[in-house]
Amino acid sequence: MARVRYFAAAREAAGVEEENRGETTLGQLRVALGSDYPELGGILPRCAVLVGGARLEDDAVLDTDVLVDVLPPFAGG
């Protein structure tokens, strides 16, 4: 299972700080998050979603125990 951590506005939209998820690809995870958390679905396209610290394509396989971070866009410099 992937461990998903949510930060800032993504955390507020999901209503959880982190959770374990069973989706097997990044694309499946994105779709499921938008469905499970409609408010998050509204900002998810603008979020950086890092898998093991890297930006990957939606067809990337989510290995067991991988860490996924959902980071909304941040303002400022």
Assign the structural class, choosing from mainly alpha, mainly beta, alpha/beta, alpha+beta, or little secondary structure: alpha+beta
Average pLDDT over all residues: 95
Spatial shape: globular
Number of helices: 3
Q: Could you name the ranges where pLDDT drops below 50 across 5 or more consecutive residues?
A: none
Radius of gyration, Cα only, in angstroms? 11 Å
Beta-strand fraction estimate: 25-35%
Oligomer: single chain
Order of helices and strands: EHEHHEEE
* Helix residue percentage: 25-40%
The largest sheet, given as strand count, sense and whether it forms a barrel, is: 5 strands, mixed
Query: What is the straight-line distance between the termini?
Result: 35 Å
Number of strands: 5
Please state how the strands of the largest beta sheet are arranged side by side: 2-1-5-3-4
Please explain how this structure is put together.
This protein is of the alpha+beta class and 77 residues long. The chain is 31% helix and 26% strand. The protein contains three helices and five strands, in the order βαβααβββ. It has helices spanning 8-14, 26-36, 38-43, and strands spanning 2-6, 18-21, 48-51, 54-55, 67-71. The longest helix is centred in the middle third of the chain and has 11 residues, at 26-36. The mean pLDDT is 95.
Q: Any descriptors?
A:
alpha+beta
Structure in a nutshell:
With 77 residues, the protein is an alpha+beta fold. The chain has three helices and five strands. The protein has helices at 8-14, 26-36, 38-43; strands at 2-6, 18-21, 48-51, 54-55, 67-71.
